Request: fold
Amino acid sequence: MKTSRLSRSAIAVVMLVGVAACSSSSDDSENGVRIVTMTAGLTEAVFALGFGDQVVGRDLSSTLADAADLPIVTTTHDVNAEALLAVRPTLVLVDEDTGPDEALDQIRATGVRVEMVENATRVDEIVPRLERVAEILGAPERAERLAEVIDTDFAELLGGDDLPVAPRVAFLYVRGPAGVYLLGGPGSGPDSIITAAGGIDAGTDIGLDLPFTPLTPEALVEAAPDILLVTTTGLDSVDGIDGLLELTGVQQTPAGKARRIMTAEDGLLFSFGPRTPDLVAGLRAEMIVQMEKVAQ
Reply:
């Protein structure tokens, strides 16, 4: 059976993990490095680079299956310094959104090393973040190998011709019980995923200038999305597709009239890691399926 190029990022991750597991002379293992990752993307990066067995804690947003049993060291999305210090870390990886600052200062005051890694919200930022994490972990060569595969995956995906017309896709960030309804725009993260998959980010296309803008019927009608993209938990929070269609303005869009709804797992959609090429490929295939639906 021929291996598809779009699955090779995942294969490369497995190979790197295997190499790391077989290496009994790792300096990090000898020094007892204990890592806590504070974002989903950082968790993915550390595991992809073969250091997953040294992760002792994670944040709530990290939904990578291999990290599922690790202690959560955040309260909602805020750092819980006591919970974090309880897992006895020697290295904490954070990005610019990690906080509160008081908790990070408390952690640094104990002598724990805290390293800042710039957040990634575009597909072209995946490799630089991997390289930064690999540099911190002292294994830059691992990032080089993984970067080659990721770059190849995206190059092949962008060269495909299986999506004849670029659909307009709007990302809706919805949290029903909290009353949060937002339309994604430039810098949201999903805008880059949509573009990489071959679509047009509808929020960006109508001139939104913020990553997220309060959702209004007027904005939806102007965006005129052919397809709506939501997270799996977001869709669940509004009781599924029927509940989403009840939001004001949704049924007036081409997407609403034809019930064209795509979902992506929250942690994966915003992680921007080695699994992202497979996510993009899956969304591209789903766009083709969705565009075959006609208005009811």
